[in-house]
Amino acid sequence: MAFTWNFRSIPGSSQHFGFLKFHLASPLWSDRPLFAFLQWVILVTSGLSWGGADLAFGNDGASGKLTPHPVGQAIDRDAPGKYGLALQPVELPPGDSHPIDRLLARYYESHDINPPHVTADEQFARRVTLDLIGLPPTKAQLNEFLRDDSRDKRAKYIERLLADAESYTAHWITFWSDHFRIGSEVNAGAFDNDNTKAPQEWLLSMLRQSVPYDELARELIAGEIYDKYALCVAPTEDIISPVERAEMQIATTISQVFLGIQLKCAACHDSFIDRWTMQDAWGLAVALGGQELEVHRCQTATGQMALPQFPLASLGDIDPQLEIGPKRQRVAELMTCRANGLFARTIVNRLWARLIGRGLIEPLDEMMEHTPWNAELLDWLAAEFVRQGYDVKKLLLLITTSEAYQMQPVVRDKPLRTDEDYLFRGPELRSLTAEQVIDTIAVLGQMATPDANAVSTQTRAWQRTRTDLMTVLGRPTRDVVVSTRVQEASALMALEMLNGQELNGLVQKAATVQAAKAVDAPAFGEHICMMLLSRRPTENERIVLEQIGGKNFSDEVAADMIWTVAMLPEFLLLP
Amino acid sequence: MQRSELHRRDCLKSMSGAITAALTAQYAASLPAAEPVPSASADCLVLLWMAGGMAHTETFDPKHYEPFTPGIESRRVLSTFPAIHTAADPIKFTQGLEEMASVMDEGALIRTFTCPVTDSITHAKHQYHWHTGYLPPLSVVAPHLGSVIARTLGPNNPDVPSFVDINEPMAEASREAAGIRSFLTAGFLGVEYGPFMVPHPANAAKQLQSAIGSHRTEKRMQGYRDLVRAGQRLEQTSGYQQESMIRSMEQAYRLMNSPAAKSFDLSTEPQEVYDRYNTGPFGLGCLLARRLVERGARFIEVHVPYKPFGYWDTHEDGHSAVVKLKQMIDRPIAQLIRDLRDRNLLSRTLIVLASEFSRDVLIQGKVGKAVTAGRAAIAPTMPTVQHYGMHGHFADAGSILLWGGGIKKGFAYGETADEHPCKSVKNPVEIEDVHATIYRAMGISPRQAYEVERRPFYVTRDGVGKPILDLFG
User: Fold this and answer.
1) CB A192 to CB B117 under 8 A?
2) Is there a contact between A45 and B447 if contact means CB atoms under 8 Å apart?
3) What domain range includes position A24?
4) CA–CA distance, A269 with A295 (Å, rounded to integer)
5) Are residues A436 and A314 part of one domain?
6) Out of A38-42, A204-208, A322-326, A483-487, which region has the weakest mean confidence (pLDDT)?
7) Which residues in chain B (218-257) have CB-CB distances under 8 A to chain A?
8) Rounded to an integer, what distance in angstroms lies between the CA atom of residue A86 and that of residue A69?
9) ipTM, 2 decimals?
10) How far is residue A75's CA from residue A368's CA, in Å, rounded to a whole number?
């Protein structure tokens, strides 16, 4: 679909930012997008015309960045992404080491990088246990792992964690709920129609049974759960704009989650910042909803009826004559077919980012607009994921058994920006999620010797309505897809930690339970370090903990010690 | 051409500073406003929020008064209170608002706040709309007005949180409450700019004094510092994440112990003054607001809380309910205005009173049942006093009061009809223009934008808000 856009033709008042309606008259994106953007804002808002040549902008296939083009040279909306939809065959370098590390060896060499060492066993155990089941290792888990002297002890440990279906589910439900917008809170009240909790139950059963990812996608799109899912992402009444309809909400949500593409802009007009057109958004919506839809441009009817279409149209057509059931099945089929490498790449990229702290492609939701920092690695992982039957657990096993995952984290003096040139030098430091922080402390208050299996049957943070503590620790309202949780340390967060009732209650309870068996303050300090940091205190830390403990060990002192250790950046981050 | 070239060069010149600011911003980048913004006439904003839907004809826009008699014809009832004079003739209020009427010579009235969505009027949607300027659901999480102000202007005094929210319950007790309060967020701007919630103004001081006592908190803080220092030899402890966590903890601790923290302690107020404000939590919220303004607050919202079928959500027996509501708000608000005036703070403090929508005589809904537009109906008569009052959601007119901060004194803007349902007939005002007016007083352009997902997000809807210039002195 041809697209031309003349800067002068956009009136300054046409930008919208309503629901799914980003009427952004496009900026002149350049290699320095912000700069061009600022120029654009000034020009548009001051009613001036661009002094230079008439410019539109399009997608520069080579660099992967949006760059200005002379008018007439429009966005190539049919460009096949950076390297086509099909996964590129990757030849694995020979060797005995982990395939990911073999692929990275070439990368390190060509970028002159000395990869950091892998972490010590304790640090590895803490990281991987939190990553896979959302809690730090119990003493028993840790001891068993440390005592094991077999060469493949790490792989065996990971396999044990992944085999614990309940704990795995209780942790990963948060990740998937953030993506699918299940357990949405802003839609509660006036918009909430999901009284059945069916989508959440469905998601839990998918995770418990470790249902293959392609099957999960097909069920969501064309299975029985679709109608209940619709209630959880869209209002059923009070619909003001046609793009609030459930099928459009689901179209924009699933295309973002499964394909890493954003149809939100295109729901109202052909996107000004990437390739997607109204045809793409309305085509997918009408294929899902089954009812005839008149295309609305910025809430104004165009007189055109939407024709069913998959946004990656080259994969195949959707017959408009099909009944709604088969139509959805056709969408599911196009989404999960082998030719659609983007489906596998997107989830591989998401899980890599979750475990490593930064995606192979960033931002995670602009998969078609950017090149990965290591295309071979991405496509090899995606192909392996497909070969292993879209088994998410096997993918997690694959990544976590690599040295790349197990290395010392990168220490940075300022945040990484998404548009920054990135070199892989090891995993990033990641913040624990609200659920991880709260569950870890809550576990201490539940039993003296918590064990992962028993814990998962207790109430975990994901099951509860969002509290202030969760809010300041980064749990989002799920009214939009959340691919990456933002968690900046803020004074508000610290204040909640310093004197908030919820944390204080958790700490107090933990102290009462844990101190019951403690002999004295030094022993208790060591116990808490083991429980929260998975390591013994250093000599200096031991001295400080003894000082905090004082001479009269009590529940109060125990609470102070737990609080102090839990406030350490080492606890709140995932080194 | 020449002129516009010149203009453009000025724009480009003024841009470099903005770029620097945008690049160093921790959160969503600020994008520069195009037009020059008139300098601020207010440094601080106090929003008095009448959640639930305050009927304009029962409060600040009196119409034909019809006393109750059993079986009275509903359409004849436009106001259930007689009109009273205010200090700003010819502006009239309704009976029960005498104290506020006495300070109306300091303020202005907008009679014609209207919302484009008038057929499905809900508290969740309209409160969100009023506070963010955007109708939900949205594809990004929109920031609250207070967060925009906090992000754009920063604190007046670094020890006072930029956005303080008073008298709205904090914990989300139910999913419904969570939805209703979804506007109380900084959204994509980041939690740093979110509300500092003070759910119980009478106990505000306790929020900053730790529950475990100041001595023990100090001990904990000392232990924390020592333990951080002891661990600093370890690797991975010098990154920006660790440093910002440690810094945040120090900031929070400083806030707890700053002189500003004393402003949260209402017990230090003379008993006589405390009593004058104390009509309950809302009144004490006004007192707390005054103390925080004195200390250098930036944005404060004091709520009459939202409670389904409670407070201003008068679905039945509206007249009696409004009598009580007036007793709750009249004295403390008037006192707030007087106190700030007497302290020479009113001229630089903008006070705004508003509600998400108004009401008319429709009989609508049942306690415990959701209200839908389809169920709305006007009963032809009012058989009992429970029917006497304004009960249906109504968005074609509504009152907003403004005092101080450069706003014209004793002035009324817009006109509503004298016939049922008393709609806006002259100068209707939509939320983007209300926000543009507030932003103008605060020195912020209505086209101020923040970048999110590679798009500009304007602080008034799509940047189209126009300040109501008539309201400025």
Assistant:
1) no
2) yes
3) 7-70
4) 10
5) no
6) A38-42
7) 219-221, 223-224, 226-228, 230-231, 233-242, 244-249, 251-253, 255-256
8) 28
9) 0.82
10) 13
